[in-house]
UniProtKB/TrEMBL annotation:
Assembly information from the UniProt record: Homodimer. May interact with ROPN1.
Pfam families in the record: RIIa
UniProt keywords, alphabetically: Membrane
Biological role: Sperm surface zona pellucida binding protein. Helps to bind spermatozoa to the zona pellucida with high affinity. Might function in binding zona pellucida and carbohydrates.
Matches recorded under SUPFAM superfamilies: Dimerization-anchoring domain of cAMP-dependent PK regulatory subunit
Gene designation: SPA17
Protein name (database record): Sperm surface protein Sp17
A GO term for molecular function: calmodulin binding
Signal sequence bounds: none
Length: 95
């Protein structure tokens, strides 16, 4: 079966890559004999988690990546030890 070539760019839906990555990781970990059945059960479990917690599992990784990015930006804003050691010393005010 051949598929004709197309210049059309397909956009991957948000969260789809995360879902497939999670499924692939679990398939590799569990090594199921019936992968389609395993995938169906995997996605059923994800749906139950989404209903139970109100968070879409397909967005978990995306949220974690955003947190990591924010943390790295905050780290960049911290002064280095050299910068801090070059600050003038401040004497405490005694009243």
């Amino acid at each position: 079966m051949s598929i004709p070539f197309s210049n059309t760019q397909q956009r991957i839906p948000r969260g789809f890559a995360n879902l497939l990555e999670g499924l692939a990781r679990e398939v590799l970990r569990e090594q199921p004999e019936d992968i389609p059945c395993f995938a169906a059960e995997y996605f059923e479990d994800l749906l139950e988690e989404r209903e139970r917690h109100g968070i879409d599992p397909s967005e978990w990784k995306e949220q974690l990546e955003e947190l990591k990015l924010k943390r790295s930006e905050l780290k960049k804003q911290r002064p280095t030890l050299e910068q801090v050691s070059n600050l003038p010393e401040i004497s405490p005010i005694l009243t």
